[in-house]
Amino acid sequence: MTEHLLVFPDRETADEVAAGLGDEGFTEVRVVREALAGEDDAEAHEWAVLVREEMVVDESRPVEQGLRERFAALAEERGGWYDPHPGG
Question: Most buried residue among 2, 3, 16, 25 by CB atoms closer than 10 A?
Fold first, then answer.
């Protein structure tokens, strides 16, 4: 299973992106509140879309690389950023 995190400054954008990705049939797509590194203030939290996909097992393969590039582009065009290693 692979995980991807797309981070956005507002919940509305995160909800829209999550709905679109969910419609595409990814294993798990959910919106989570993401604290920025070093920030304790609740206002400094951003909204993230966590995508888990069970069908991709080898992270070095072209399918995984294609997902990373797609998610990075999607995050950038919606004013956010992409974290290719959300757990690490």
Answer: 2
